């Protein structure tokens, strides 16, 4: 999806910590439990978070992708109700540096799009993996989700791209 000469900048995978107070004792540092992620990634730098209760996947571009693109100035989104196959182009992102297609990480029907991106495409730069989501897709085959890259595999993919340069 993006020029291979772009350098990855990945978020730290440090474990979160919290402080607990137990009576008059001093504060103790405790490592929080990390839960299994429901987010998967493509090698083209899209992510999808799958809600098994609703069979809906929320799709967006990764932080790596938005950094590679630069300041996003326009986002083209799919139409609600569109039937899409895995790998189909479902939209595009234009920035001051480049334009790039967005590919469906899973097949299904577009249930909702992020209308906020029409007025504020910079949400993709500010919060690409939360408020900057692109579309919500009702999956036709949840097994496609499971076949995508895990968080660890995606990080390794990005590190591999950095080593190629």
TrEMBL record:
What the entry lists under CDD domains is as follows: GCS_H (cd06848)
Which family is this sequence assigned to?
Belongs to the GcvH family.
InterPro entries from the xrefs?
A: 2-oxoA_DH_lipoyl-BS, Biotin_lipoyl, GCV_H, GCV_H/Fam206, GCV_H_sub, Single_hybrid_motif
**A Pfam family matched in the record:** GCV_H
| Cofactor(s) this protein cannot do without | (R)-lipoate
List the protein's name: Glycine cleavage system H protein
Q: How is the cofactor bound?
A: Binds 1 lipoyl cofactor covalently.
């Amino acid at each position: 999806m993006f020029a291979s000469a772009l350098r990855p900048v990945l978020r730290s995978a440090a474990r979160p910590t919290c402080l607990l107070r137990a009576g008059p004792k001093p504060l103790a540092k405790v490592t929080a439990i990390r839960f299994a992620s429901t987010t998967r990634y493509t090698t083209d730098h899209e992510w999808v978070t799958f809600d098994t209760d609703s069979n809906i996947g929320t799709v967006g571009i990764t932080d790596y992708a938005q950094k590679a693109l630069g300041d996003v100035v326009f986002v083209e989104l799919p139409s609600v109700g569109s039937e899409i196959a895995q790998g189909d182009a479902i939209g595009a992102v234009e920035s001051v540096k480049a334009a790039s297609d967005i590919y469906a990480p899973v097949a299904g029907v577009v249930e909702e799009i992020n209308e906020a991106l029409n007025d504020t495409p910079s949400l993709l730069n500010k919060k690409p993996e939360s408020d900057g989501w692109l579309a919500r897709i009702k999956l036709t085959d949840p097994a496609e989700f499971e076949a995508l890259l895990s968080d660890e595999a995606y990080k390794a993919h990005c590190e591999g791209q950095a080593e190629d340069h």
